[in-house]
Amino acid sequence: xxxxxxxxxxxxxxxxxxxxxxxxxxxxxxxxxxxxxxxxxxxxxxxxxxxxxxxxxxxxxxxxxxxxxxxxxxxxxxxxxxxxxxxxxxxxxxxxxxxxxxxxxxxxxxxxxxxxxxxxxxxxxxxxxxxxxxxxxxxxxxxxxxxxxxxxxxxxxxxxxxxxxxxxxxxxxxxxxxxxxxxxxxxxxxxxxxxxxxxxxxxxxxxxxxxxxxxxxxxxxxxxxxxxxxxxxxxxxxxxxxxxxxxxxxxxxxxxxxxxxxxxxxxxxxxxxxxxxxxxxxxxxxxxxxxxxxxxxxxxxxxxxxxxxxxxxxxxxxxxxxxxxxxxxxxxxxxxxxxxxxxxxxxxxxxxxxxxxxxxxxxxxxxxxxxxxxxxxxxxxxxx
Amino acid sequence: xxxxxxxxxxxxxxxxxxxxxxxxxxxxxxxxxxxxxxxxxxxxxxxxxxxxxxxxxxxxxxxxxxxxxxxxxxxxxxxxxxxxxxxxxxxxxxxxxxxxxxxxxxxxxxxxxxxxxxxxxxxxxxxxxxxxxxxxxxxxxxxxxxxxxxxxxxxxxxxxxxxxxxxxxxxxxxxxxxxxxxxxxxxxxxxxxxxxxxxxxxxxxxxxxxxxxxxxxxxxxxxxxxxxxxx
Amino acid sequence: xxxxxxxxxxxxxxxxxxxxxxxxxxxxxxxxxxxxxxxxxxxxxxxxxxxxxxxxxxxxxxxxxxxxxxxxxxxxxxxxxxxxxxxxxxxxxxxxxxxxxxxxxxxxxxxxxxxxxxxxxxxxxxxxxxxxxxxxxxxxxxxxxxxxxxxxxxxxxxxxxxxxxxxxxxxx
Lengths: 384, 231, 172
Ligand SMILES: Nc1ncnc2c1ncn2[C@@H]1O[C@H](COP(=O)(O)OP(=O)(O)O)[C@@H](O)[C@H]1O
Ligand SMILES: [Mg+2]
Description:
The structure holds three protein chains of three kinds. Chain A is built from 13 helices and 14 strands. Chain A has helices at 5-14, 16-50, 76-83, 125-128, 151-155, 196-203, 221-230, 241-251, 253-283, 286-295, 299-329, 347-374, 377-382, and strands spanning 55-60, 89-90, 93-94, 96-108, 112-121, 133-137, 144-148, 167-170, 173-182, 191-195, 210-214, 236-240, 333-336, 339-342. In chain A, strands 1, 4, 5, 6, 7, 8, 9, 10, 11 and 12 form a ten-stranded mixed sheet that branches. A two-stranded antiparallel sheet of chain A has the order 2-3. In chain B, the strands form two sheets. A six-stranded mixed sheet of chain B has the order 6-7-8-3-9-10, sandwiched between helices. In chain B, helix 4 (117-130) packs across helix 5 and helix 5 runs parallel beside helix 6 (176-192). The A-C interface holds A 35-36, 39, 61, 220-223, 225-226, 229-233, 237, 251-252, 254-259, 262, 334-337 and C 1, 4-5, 7-8, 10-12, 14-15, 18, 73, 75, 78-81, 83-85, 114, 117, 119, 121, 129, 131, 153, 157-159, 161. Adenosine-5'-diphosphate is lined by residues 13, 15, 20, 22, 40, 42-48 of chain B.
């Protein structure tokens, strides 16, 4: 037999300022958990959707994992196209995209300057990078660029500064923004794309960073890999794009572990808020709790009622935070070393955030409740 | 067999080095329908005795049979269930739950019984009526006077139709006038509803309303005259 | 957001020092169990040439027997095809106690590797590469010593590929 539900609810209203304070504390903790989990989920999601199973990246063996450091000969794309027949070819266009990719300072309107990711591409790029879609404007001509949906976040500038028609400056010249593109959440969304030959001219480079190839269905990326091994002189390596982003997931594992650790720490701090509140709430109720036992309520029923009280408050805090997270955090762009991505408050994030919130309620209520119930009823009834 | 039977009950407490023995090998019978008052100086063990009869505390030795059950043999949770069905407790300081209304306070013990909601409502309303507070049902304890609060406490103690009701100085914190009301009420409960009452008080006048009076002194009982023969 | 950035930085820092020594592939137990397939020889073929020598002497199309250690890059095996690179035994690789997790990449000797590396691809009767993992097919791993018999393919740039259906794995 449980105590009536109203008992828990009204007890919360008994000390309104303390309850409100605890509510804020719990909501803050849950919010922090949402931020961190949303961050992890967003990062994972961004890497997961970036790879295309049919795309093979060819870049320099000497660059390790970092494509920015890669330098390969300008003739590589034609060599690959000539030597391998597994590439998609439509209307006489081989789906091979030579690209020059670098991180460089980009200055946008209002003098904000940030580290941007710039990719010099040819017309074949969107054929290979199939998720890329122009959402506004047109493909860049000479001296023009298109910017990804999250480029502004990556640069730390306002969205207005990267609107079509604005100008940005990098690698010693001004560029006109002539379009904006999306890529279904893939990593390119934080990049700025311009014409390959423009970027080569500005950087005084003749080489490429990588070649991306779209393979026909059923063709193995291993064929490209084998070609790279055989042509030792070219010092190339090939990797499936999905594997490349898979290895980045591994690469960012410490970050994710650290993030989970932060979740743990924050939750630990939150428990104290819950404990403080519930100790205060239960301490003044010694005789009341003894009275309930004298009437015939079992200790377990009273324990559950006290936990209910804590959980009720925690649930309120969690819901408050959940609503705020969904409306304010979800989709918020964050800057990161590899590019920008959006925080993702998905079902997993909600589950973890609210789960942590509930735990705060339970763990916060348990010790004071147990302490109050351990006392002898006869002794507690004498308490003033 | 008596409704309440204490046989060879002893209870002592340790206070630092010394041991106090408020109850020393006592026997006591309370018949069904009896109204027994217990007097004695402060600290002689009157509350302790009530707690033993209610199964809130355990004796060091002896047996306590209440309505055929030896309460010294029950586990803690069994005792809670037993109290819910068999015992009403009236506290000196009424001990109402401040966040519940008068009605909800009285309803509290009935939630532990298997009753339909209409039966439950009927019981609570009857109890409220018995203490004359039907019109105060929706009031919270802080909105009631001391006497009214104690009457709600009494309603709560009788609502589950217990076999025994114990009262620990029920008029102890009331002024003379409200004390009078409560005394009349207790007497009526005993006479009209035939409720068996064990009441502790240290007020001779209050003790006098009982049908039988005992005095507890240095661990032993002294039987006083039958009701009506004192005062 | 600032906190998250710091967090990311710390994480990246932690990664760059994360290159601890891990257990280096020991070469002893390879191939002791059931000889995997029709491509594995039971006896070592005679007259094997070291990779460096072969790159000097062998012409395009010639039959050749080649010996070397599997390695030459951090991932000497091709994923999904039975093919790998081997390196001449005279090129030293980092010892286990130097704490390199991937000694088979010859990272300290990359100049010497250039002239002492060959690609081996396992081919079936029709001459097309076998779509299997060489590690499982031949019971080999990085730094296994293999003797392969097959047909050489050379180009003007000095690259040497051997298409082979006969591999002997040395137990050392
Ligand atoms: N739980 C307890 N622990 C220690 N001593 C107690 C406890 N309960 C009662 N006592 C002691 O036992 C004696 C009797 O107490 P009590 O039954 O409350 O007396 P009364 O109700 O007659 O005034 C007192 O001396 C009191 O201090
Ligand atoms: Mg007392």
